Amino acid sequence: MRSVRLEEVTEVVARLYWEAARSPDPGLEAALKAGREREESEAGRAVLDDLIENLRLAGESGSPPCQDTGTAVVFLELGQDLTVEGGDLREAVDEGVRRAVREGSLRSSTVADPLRRENTGDNAPAVLHLEIVPGDRLQVSVAAKGAGSENMSALKMLTPAAGAEEIAEFAAGTVEKAGASACPPVVVGIGIGGNFEIAPLLAKKALLRPLGERNPDPFYAALEEKVIERVDRTGVGPGGLGGRFTCLDCRILAAPCHIASLPVAVNLDCCLPRHQTALL
Ligand code: SF4
Question: Is the CB of 20 under 6 A from ligand 1?
């Protein structure tokens, strides 16, 4: 049986959160430049120029490209033949988040209670998802998820008869309603199936896939293309100022569901998709 120490988990969470906060998806710059090539709106092109310049300046200075360094969303895939030694796994993850915030001067954006709104001061606790998988490795993924796009996400319980067209309409309607608030061009994560709680989790997890990587299942790859085309047709455009380029990418994850259900969740990511993954 392999084992890892809790301190290794803390270190990797701290490193991944800090790297995610300051280094958006590696394909982002190329995607923004390609979008600028086909953007017809003058205001849209100006927004894309600003986004590209912002990325350059952040890269040069080593600073996060946005002041909202997000909620730390941590996905752990824990191999069933691996033990984590030395105490409390949740605390190890939270300590990694605290360390990244402290040492990287990331913004404190988490309140301890949703109504009393007292800031925890260190972004702990993380939003933590743990899955037990075969094997003896621990995969750690951290997303720095800004509130602008998160707030505009949506869940709908469709009827089982709904098809690709209805799902694409729901996704496009969600982006249209979000307008400038989600900081477009957006990445559209879609979770299809499962149930009321699984579909949003799938949508969030779908956002971890690198930009430009199509679904390995041709059926869902085609649906991703359809969603991109439909979202671009909303005319929301870069920064919500109108234009053709609204969708940076779409990723879909699907799961089995009840014969009488078709839950669909849309989790939006903004023009700064930020996530990192490592294996222990
Ligand atoms: S949605 Fe994204 S770009 Fe907009 S403020 Fe939040 S992190 Fe920054």
Answer: no
